[in-house]
Design a protein that fits this description.
Length: 240
């Protein structure tokens, strides 16, 4: 069995919640894309990262059904684990830094997969939402799959505090995905606990720093940067 680490990314203030991430530190053990895809499907995490060069931060990210050019949760967690100033993804170079208890990356919103950002009148409305049917309200992605639905509301607009929930889009054509990343459903659940890419898009739309509570209690921090970049940060815990 290939060795891998399990992290929880975007944890709450007491270290709970967050979403699981698998990281294979020695990507050379699984060099072929098809084998990486199969291994990611076997692990069943929303995202699994294969590290191809730990010193330069070269990474390759997969959900159980597809390869991603970029993933916010994957990059935040892997940057924390490797303790590097930059990650190199197929989408581009991702700046990384640590700031006290938070791990931060800097990325571009256009790297994120399609997502419907739907605002509600109050945090209570978001919390009371029923899980929508797969793909409802989500725009078609270039692949023909559906993007996710990201429901959000202000908890405190002046302070930039947001309450959010994230509902993955339709599973792939086989309908057998277990992924919580990109545009597929998690096996056994219909909602993501923490979604970095959607937070990236919401920050671009609102043009301001955000403190997002998503799912049961995950925390995601964001901040716009010059020239269209966005920082996204959170707590990371090593599970095993």
């Amino acid at each position: 069995m290939t060795d891998y680490d399990v992290l929880r990314v975007f944890c709450g203030p007491r270290g709970g919640y967050g979403d699981e991430l698998g990281v294979v530190r020695n990507g050379a053990l699984v060099p072929e894309p098809d084998d990486r895809q199969a291994f990611a499907a076997e692990l069943g995490f929303g995202e699994t990262v294969f590290v191809d060069d730990p010193e330069r931060g070269v990474v390759d990210v997969y959900t159980p059904t597809l390869r991603l050019p970029f993933a916010g949760r994957a990059c935040v967690g892997t940057a924390w684990l490797l303790d590097v100033p930059e990650l190199v993804t197929p989408a581009g170079a991702v700046g990384a830094r640590a700031d006290g208890e938070f791990s931060w990356i800097e990325a571009r919103p256009e790297w994120a997969p399609p997502c419907t950002l739907r605002q509600y009148g109050s945090a209570a409305e978001v919390e009371e939402l029923a899980v929508p049917p797969a793909g409802v309200g989500a725009p078609p992605a270039p692949s023909g799959r559906r993007g996710r639905l990201y429901a959000w509301a202000w908890e405190d607009e002046a302070a930039g505090r947001v309450r959010a929930r994230s509902f993955p889009g339709r599973a792939d054509e086989r309908g057998d995905s277990r992924s919580g990343g990109a545009d597929a459903r998690i096996g056994g659940t219909d909602e993501d606990e923490a979604t970095g890419a959607a937070a990236l898009l919401l920050t671009e739309r609102l043009g301001r720093a955000l403190n997002i509570v998503q799912g049961g209690g995950s925390q995601i921090l964001t901040a716009p940067q010059p020239e269209g970049w966005v920082e996204i940060g959170g707590r990371v815990v090593l599970e095993r």
